[in-house]
Design a protein that fits this description.
Layout (H helix, E strand, L loop, with lengths): L1 H7 L3 H42 L10 H9 L6 H17 L8 H31 L2 H43 L14
Helix pairs in contact: 5-6
Length: about 190
């Protein structure tokens, strides 16, 4: 009976060997399963991992910089774009200057008219700023709305006359500089433009 009992009860070494066999067997099963998953879905897994690493970083909506960017969205000034537009407009105007065919009185009227419009625009802008600084937001919007509409109309009118008036002023400044002797072969250098 002793011999039979020994054969039925595994020794400590046999248990360890069986556990190692079981662990190896389970490792093989897991390896096969992972191989199947990766072979079938490797592209999907790679895309998911890529999306997780390249995910969009959401802004901190409570930060001052985020709030500032939201407040000025669409109202920023691009100096380079503005400069390129101004230069192309001036070059196009210089190819066929309308003021060259005007009488001196008309040229003077256009130049003075531009300066008056600039002064009016400055006064309107100051008045609108004063309205916003002295009233609460809702009240200021209702008070400033007609002033802002008037300001937009003045700017639109000024834009139509601006190139001719600037050309008249530039020509007058260049002529004054030439009379003072700041000219090379009758041309002011650097040119007033």
């Amino acid at each position: 009976m002793d011999i039979e009992a020994k054969q039925l009860t595994p020794s400590g070494g046999d248990v360890i060997i069986r556990r190692m066999e079981f662990r190896d067997h389970m490792a093989k099963i897991v390896d096969k399963a992972l191989d199947r998953i990766f072979s079938r879905y490797s592209l999907v897994i790679c895309l998911i991992l890529l999306l997780l690493t390249l995910s969009y970083e959401w802004p901190d909506v409570k930060s001052e910089s985020f709030l500032y960017q939201q407040a000025i969205r669409g109202r920023t000034f691009d100096h380079i774009e503005w400069e390129i537009k101004q230069l192309t407009d001036k070059l196009l105007y210089a190819s066929a200057p309308a003021h060259a065919f005007m009488e001196p009185d008309d040229q003077q009227r256009i130049a003075l008219g531009l300066l008056q419009k600039i002064d009016t625009i400055k006064m309107l802008t100051d008045h609108i700023e004063m309205v916003y600084s002295n009233n609460d937001a809702a009240e200021a919007k209702t008070i400033a709305a007609p002033l802002e509409e008037m300001l937009a109309n003045k700017r639109l009118i000024m834009k139509g006359e601006q190139l001719a008036a600037e050309a008249v002023i530039e020509e007058a400044v260049a002529q004054s500089l030439a009379e003072e002797g700041i000219a090379v072969l009758g041309r002011v250098f650097p040119p007033v433009r």
